[in-house]
Amino acid sequence: MNIVLPLTLAVSLAIGSMAAAHAEDKGNREARFGAHVVDPQPDNGQLAGMKASVGSDTKPTASIEYLFTPNWGIEALAALPFSHEVKLDGQRAATTKQLPAVIGVNYHFLLDARVSPFVGLGINYTCFFDTRGSGLLQGAHVSADNSWGAAAHAGMDVQLSRDSLFTADVRWIDIRSDIHVNGAYVGTAKINPWVYGVSRGYRF
Q1: For residues 40 and 56, is the Cβ–Cβ distance under 8 A?
Q2: pLDDT tens per residue across span 78-125
Q3: Exposure pattern of 9-40 as b/e (b: 16+ CB <10 Å)?
Q4: pLDDT of residue 21
Q5: Separation CA 201–CA 77 (nearest Å)
Q6: CB within 8 A of 83, min separation 6: which ones?
Q7: How many Cα atoms sit within 13 Å of 74 on the Cβ side?
Q8: Which domain holds residue 177?
Q9: CATH code for position 141
Q10: What distance in Å separates the CA atoms of residue 159 and residue 108, rounded to the nearest whole number?
Q11: How many structural domains are present in the chain?
Q12: d(CA 50, CA 58)
């Protein structure tokens, strides 16, 4: 978790520096506030010879984007920690929390239209923490390794006024975590979630 905060701060400072350098340009920064669902893929692999299943969760999210050209923007996404229940062969085995920080580049179409779709690609760093054994693994020491991976992004902005918009979007994130129980490696959880949600945006 100690890497996520510096990473997010570094991106925020970078975006802030670019924004300051182009302070005369109005409306090329966008801040969005909303909620998203992290919905892991149905098959999460095998852990200790048993079928793993990782539950979904919904949390508030926020992002900031700097449009360095009329169509291209660099974006940083942050959220409150997502909580997931892990089951093995359908039985509760562990719980964990994670922060999936994403930095990416988006391309916006039809900027002058009321509805403007966009697509993007980026990189994700997911930090797992507060992982605990429960049910089958009650009392065991369970840990999940952090994950680097690619991220894809698509969605649409709906212009509400000159300075505000409504956004619906979906992301696919490559998240895989090596799982250890009492220090022993028991397998890799292949989470690879779809992340979808809505947000209210403000241009400034």
Answers
A1: yes
A2: 999 999 999 999 999 999 999 999 999 999 998 889 999 999 999 999
A3: eebeeebeeebeeeeeeeebbbebebebebbb
A4: 43
A5: 13
A6: 57, 95, 96, 97
A7: 12
A8: 4-21+30-203
A9: 2.40.160.20
A10: 13
A11: 1
A12: 26
